[in-house]
Each structure stands twice: as structure tokens, then as C-alpha cells.
């Protein structure tokens, strides 16, 4: 889910029964299209079980180490690691295609300054997997940006995920992708944009009223081709409530380059 602000937050899961022992939240990137299979190999489907033997896709994520995924702190709906399942190598949430690897979660690390309010920032978490991910040809560890790296205004990145395609909610099966132009902080922090809700530890992208992330995309990556390499520069954090693709209200991401020291510290200590 993407945390929705301006009429704050929606956590409802709208699920439909599916085979293969898991369900899918209604969703799609708004204004997106089917991604080419086997392209965004670091994309994760984070799934939660409510004790009935099925799993619900609740958020996206990125593989940042063979034993860790990165997601949004607001995606952590339970502190019980045993309730989660991570699926990598996923493309169609409705089919088992043989490319998927499934892992339970051993430990959850939420940023210590996360307050539960996306406007305060620090919306980032790491999850340690119970077993390391291996390269089956369909998964890859994400490249990350340089410390404190910032992208110029108008730079085109791609959001990927299984979030809502509209505020009514339609259900695609395939991973979606959509281009979003970066909105620099000096613009995004203006009153007609996100104002004081936009911080320098965030990345704004989109805001054209057509293309955006939405509920179900939270925790997923903002993929940007920098220095000839695809890097995950952002973690989907929040957007406007009820209608995700509002003009001057771009999708807001946690800026990964601002949190690298914390991430590496957690992974080093936990290992």
C-alpha cells in the first residue's frame, strides 16, 4: 500500500481468492503498463498472512543483499516476522511461473526515527530473510545510489509495482512500470505542491495528474538509470488520498541515498 495523505491513510485490503495459496491486493501503477518480464529483477512482493493459510500482497520492496530486502516502514503492519513472506522473481501474482523464490522473514528492522507519520520522514525498513536468495536467473541485488546523491529536476525514473491503477481499484496480474519525472525539492516543497510535507530526505516524482504510484506500490523502488547503471533511488512512501494521480501532488519516495549508513550498519551488525 502507499500511505495516503491529505485525507490521511487507507489500510484496507481488498482481496480476491486466487490459486497458489495467496491473494493479491487490488492494484496497479496508475498510468503504467505491463513491465517486460525479467527486467526489474530486484522487485519484491511483500506478503502478509492473517493466519488463514493465505498470503496477501501488501507492499513492494527491493533486494538489497542476498539476505535483506528494503521496504517502507509503514508497510510493517505487524512486528511478528513470522506473518510475512517475501516473493522475488515474481511477475504475475495470479500464476506460479517457476521463476519465483519464496522466503519467510527472520527479523524486521524499522528505522529508529520512524514516528508512524510519513510527513516526518524516515519511512524505511529492512527485513532479514530466513534463507538467502540465490541467483536463479530471475533475481538480482539492486544497485544503490551514492551517499547523499540527488537527482536533477525532470530526470526520468521508473516506478514499478502492483499498486492500484485507479482509486476504484482494478486487478492486474502483471508487474507494472511507469516513467516519472523527478520534481526537485525546491519545487516539491512549494505550497501548491507538497509544501512542508516534502523533506530533503525524500524524492518527489510525477505530479502530472496522469501517472503515479498508488496503494499497493508502497515500499517498492524508484528505478533510475544513473552513471549507466539502474539504481534504486527511492522507496515509495506516500501520495494524495482517494485519487493518487493529482496534479502538483507527485508520488513521494524515501530518498535511499540519505539512509545508506543506517542500512549498512543494520546489515553488518545483524550478520
TrEMBL record:
Domain Peptidase S1 positions? 29-268
Would the keyword Protease turn up in this protein's UniProt record? yes
User: What span is annotated as the signal peptide, if there is one?
Assistant: 1-16
Classification via Pfam families: Trypsin (PF00089)
Q: One Gene Ontology cellular component annotation?
A: extracellular space
* Keywords assigned: Disulfide bond, Hydrolase, Protease, Serine protease, Signal, Zymogen
This one is known as Elastase-1
Instruction: Recite the lineage of the species.
Output: Eukaryota, Metazoa, Chordata, Craniata, Vertebrata
Amino acid at each position: 500500500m502507499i500511505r495516503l495523505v491529505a485525507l490521511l491513510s487507507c489500510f484496507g485490503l481488498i482481496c480476491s481468492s486466487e490459486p497458489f495459496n495467496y491473494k493479491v491486493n487490488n492494484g496497479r501503477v496508475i498510468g503504467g503498463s505491463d513491465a517486460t518480464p525479467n527486467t526489474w529483477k530486484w522487485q519484491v512482493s511483500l506478503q502478509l498472512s492473517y493466519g488463514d493459510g493465505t498470503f496477501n500482497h501488501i507492499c513492494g520492496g527491493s533486494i538489497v543483499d542476498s539476505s535483506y530486502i528494503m521496504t517502507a516502514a509503514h508497510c510493517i503492519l505487524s512486528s511478528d516476522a513470522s506473518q510475512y513472506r517475501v516473493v522475488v522473481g515474481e511477475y504475475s501474482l495470479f500464476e506460479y511461473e517457476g521463476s519465483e523464490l519464496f522466503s519467510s522473514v527472520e527479523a524486521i528492522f524499522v528505522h529508529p526515527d520512524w514516528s508512524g507519520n510519513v510527513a516526518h520522514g524516515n519511512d524505511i525498513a529492512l527485513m532479514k530473510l530466513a534463507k538467502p536468495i540465490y541467483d536463479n536467473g530471475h533475481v538480482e541485488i539492486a544497485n544503490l545510489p551514492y551517499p547523499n546523491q540527488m537527482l536533477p529536476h525532470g530526470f526520468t525514473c521508473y516506478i514499478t509495482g502492483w499498486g492500484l491503477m485507479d482509486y476504484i481499484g482494478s486487478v492486474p496480474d502483471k508487474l507494472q512500470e511507469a516513467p516519472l519525472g523527478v520534481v526537485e525539492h525546491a519545487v516539491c516543497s512549494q505550497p501548491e505542491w507538497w509544501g512542508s510535507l516534502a523533506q530533503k530526505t525524500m524524492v518527489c516524482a510525477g505530479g502530472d495528474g496522469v501517472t503515479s504510484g498508488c496503494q499497493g506500490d508502497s515500499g517498492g523502488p524508484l528505478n533510475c538509470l544513473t552513471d549507466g547503471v539502474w539504481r534504486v533511488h527511492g522507496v515509495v512512501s506516500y501520495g494524495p488520498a482517494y485519487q493518487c494521480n493529482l496534479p502538483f501532488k507527485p508520488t513521494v519516495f524515501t530518498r535511499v541515498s540519505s539512509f545508506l549508513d543506517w542500512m549498512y550498519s543494520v546489515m553488518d551488525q545483524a550478520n
